[in-house]
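Hi all, long-time lurker, first post. I run a small reading group and we've been trying to get comfortable going from sequence to structure in the token notation. Rather than ask abstract questions, I figured I'd post a concrete chain and ask someone more experienced to write out its structure so we can walk through it together at our next meeting. Sequence below, copied exactly:
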Amino acid sequence: MSTIHTHSKLKLTRRLRRLRQTEAIRAMVRETRLSPDLFVLPLFVCEGEGVRREVPSMPGVFQLSVDQAVKEAAAAKGDGVRSVLLFGLPDQKDDIGSAAYDPEAPVQSAIRALKRELRDVLVITDVCLCEYTDHGHCGIVVDGEIVNDPTVEQLVRAAVSHAAAGADIVAPSDMMDGRVGAIREALDERGFEKVAIMSYAAKYGSALYGPFRDAAASAPSFGDRRSHQMDPANAREALREVEQDLAEGADIVMIKPALPYLDIIARVKETFGYPTAAYHVSGEYSMLKAAARNGWLDERRAMLECLTAIKRAGADIIITYYAREAARALA
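-- Answer (accepted) --
Happy to help. Here is the structure in token form:
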């Protein structure tokens, strides 16, 4: 049997394990820190009253009527999460997504209610047509193709209606060319120059959006979105997208999804230095939930590890369905 000499000493000047010995030491030298301030909680707002329907593919995520959305935002604020991102689920849809700019639609109604009852909660609104079109695509379809410029006109109407209702930030997620500049111009012309734009600047055509389409009832009825969302194989193209959106007036740029694109987050932050958001999307969330429910991993540790990785890559803002759980874990 071999003998281990526990008293033998290597002549090491630098022992990196010294600063890992206790949680107090590890916390003191920790390079990346999470805070509830950087989390944004997505909310799916539907019509009706007293509605709280759990999304089957996203445990813990609900479709909420306006009154319930206000309650959820208040609870999130109690956890330390002070920002929400609103998506709308209208009862009526058409081929041009006209409900997107209806002043009485769920998002506009929720903005007013949140600003009335929770004044210091930051309200961000998703600006897209996919939740509002009867075909589920992000824009107007002509002869089987999504047409860019007419779609931008509709997006401008939606963004202006959100600003008029009191949104702090509008977030175009459609990936149409030129929409940031058109929205910025329209907002400024109408006196909404204080409303910021968070652009989904590098939104990839990902397989990880499936549960979201369940939550938002926005699955396309034909085809896919690869004509406007980015090819997952491309990195330099993301820099061009971000550069263009910043030139058109974006205040914050976003990368979506987050974890498979940590390299993009890092390159965008390093190249441009602008406030950078990352969307920890529905598929990323649901995979962790499913694995945890099967007992395959420690959900709390896995959640915080994933969010830390996103922050470490360079994200200043993390949009995540885990916002409240993460905030409570950090408390």
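A couple of things your group might point at:
DSSP finds eleven helices and twelve strands in the chain.
The mean pLDDT is 93.
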